What does this fold into?
Amino acid sequence: MERDISYVPGPPPIFDGEDYELWAARITTHLEALDLWEAVEENYDVPELPSNPTMAQIKIHRERKTKKAKAKNCLFSAVSKIIFTRIMNLKSAKEIWDYLKSEYQGCERTKGMQVLKLGKEFEMQSMKETETIKGYADRLLSIANKVRLLGKDFPDERIVQKILVTVLEKYESKISTLEESKDLSTITLGELINALQAQEQRRMVRQEEVVQGAFHMKAQSTWKKKKLEGFSEQQGETFPPCPHCKKTNHPQKRCWWRLDVKCRKCGNMGHVERIASLNERRQR
It folds into this structure.
């Protein structure tokens, strides 16, 4: 089978001793994309070339030998430095694969204990107040996929039931609507997440509208208050001491005793006409 030369896989996933099943699934796909998995899985022999080989025989011999070397090199590149020191003396990709599997996959009893631990972790999950429905579903799916990688079944229906029972109260109305429109025992995980996400997005839009409305009302209130105040002198308002009269109930530019003002009543400098009028009344 010819490999599509236009496809260039990225670097291999690196195994550091943790989550072997996850790494094994990813590296298997990586090797298949490079057309090297056969060299790992079958560990075929490459017989010596016959006397006077044909060009076709030489080509096939070279390709099969090269694939085995490439598969071994790929596995060497896909492990951490510490793990590499444990496999560096193994002769073939098949030997490397079998060693890693026996060393890190664990026996059936160990896998069974891991499944039980993950099952308990799954049951303990609950949705957080600040969490989105997608974030919660992804958290549950992560646990379910770890169980599946251990070779155990974990149906989506179990995740659906978990979400229906443990979502926050704000989703209850949507779940009730779904119950009326269809049988929840047959709803898929994707359908449930999409339905709850739609309600979540509508609520977020409404909340944004409320916040924007409140901000607009506050801005209007502030504007009206400033307009009423007029940024001018108000009764009881305190200003810095006036340099002309030392009082604090008016700004400097409105002082009646400004040195640069000329009284229009008496013609003298240094006060406004109100001062002249007051003096006249006092003299009567």
About this structure: The two ends are 122 Å apart (CA to CA). Residues 252-283 form one domain. Confidence is low (pLDDT under 50) at residues 229-234.
